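re: ur question from earlier - yeah i can do the single chain one, its not a big deal. heres the input i used so u can compare w yours
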Amino acid sequence: MKTITLLVMSLILAACSAAPNTRTAHDPTADFANYKSFAFDPLRSSILIVEPQRTNEVLALISQAIESNLRQQGLETTGLAAADLLVSVQIGARETFEQTNWVTADTTFGTLDVPLKKTPYREGAIAINMLDRGRGAIVWQGVVQGRFDNPDTATRLIEKTIRQLLKDFPGGTR
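and the output i got, formated as tokens:
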């Protein structure tokens, strides 16, 4: 769990582009055609976001988007004890600034570049892990990172990003 949290935090720190960046990896030895069901595993999930009061809302949006996409691929939602795949989600976000319009100033200590404009924005990352319950091993992982400036478009952005992340999930429609 610490490794995944560190991964998410490093992705947050590395996120710098306006377009979300997605990466996926899967276990080539896993037979994805055998997976028929999934459940969310709250014990393996973690959230670190800028606005703690929005935690439940953000997690619900992401969970709904994941569930919708996995159902479209033929997987069924089931209880935790009966699921073939256990889905965990790690979410992180932070506020940062984009510094632009740099000028060079001469000071007593030498030349210094100073930004004239600081524009605040938010960047974040979502990591989705799918664990084969029978084997106890992660068989698929997807990570998306990027910048988001407008909370009003968060729902649409989350849905689009999760769809992009899961579009190549192995196994296709069952």
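DSSP finds three helices and seven strands in the chain. not sure if urs matches, ping me
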